[in-house]
C-alpha cells in the first residue's frame, strides 16, 4: 500500500511540476502582453504624425489573418488565436486613444516609423505570443489559467494601464486559455483501489 501511495504522489508531483513550470520568464504571456501595450504610445504618436486614424479595419483584419495562419501552423485553433489577438488589438486602440487624450499636442520630436521600427517590433512580440499560446494551451492545468490571468492583471496594473485598457486584453487571454469540450484537461492521477489483507 505504501509503495502505491509513493508512486501516485510522485506522478502527481510530476504533473503539477509540468503545469507550474510553463509560466514565468521574460517571454511569458503576461510579460509579452505588457510589452505589446508599451509600444502603443509610440504607435499613437506615429499615427498622429502621419494623420492616420487609430482604428484601421483593413490593417486589423490583415493582422488577425496573419496571426491565425501562424497559430494554426503551431497547432492552435484559429478561433482561439482570433479571440486572443482581437482582445490585444482592442486594448491597444484604447491605450492609443488614452495617450492622445493625455497628450493633445505633438511631442515635437521625430516620431518612430510605423513600417520600419514599430511594426517589426510588434511582429516579433506577436510571434512570441503564438509560441507561448501553443505551449500554454497544450500543457496548462485548469488552475494555471486563473494564475496566468491573475499575474497578467497584476503586471498590467503595475505598468500603469487602466482597467479600460486591461479588460479587453484579459478577455482575449481568458478566451484563448479556456478549454473546449473536445480538449483534454490534465487531472490528478487517481490511486488504484486496493483491498487490505489481514
Global outline: globular
In which range does the helix fraction lie? over 70%
Radius of gyration: 21 Å
Please work out how many helical segments DSSP would assign: 8
Major sheet summary line: none
What is the domain tally? 1
Terminal CA distance: 13 Å
- Look up the CATH topology: Chorismate Mutase Domain, subunit A
* Helix-strand pattern: HHHHHHHH
Structural descriptors:
198 residues, mainly alpha, Chorismate Mutase Domain, subunit A, disordered N terminus, disordered C terminus
Written account of the structure:
It comes from Prosthecobacter vanneervenii. Keywords: Isomerase, Signal. The protein has 198 residues and is mostly helical. The protein has a single domain (2-177), classed as Chorismate mutase (Chorismate Mutase Domain, subunit A), CATH 1.20.59. It is 71% helix and 0% strand. The chain has helices at 2-20, 29-38, 40-50, 57-73, 78-102, 114-139, 142-158, 163-177. The longest helix has 26 residues, at 114-139. The chain is globular and about 50 Å long. The two termini are 13 Å apart.
Provide a concise account of the structure shown:
The chain is mainly alpha-helical and 198 residues long. It has 8 helices and no strands. The chain has one domain (2-177): Chorismate Mutase Domain, subunit A (Up-down Bundle), CATH 1.20.59.10.
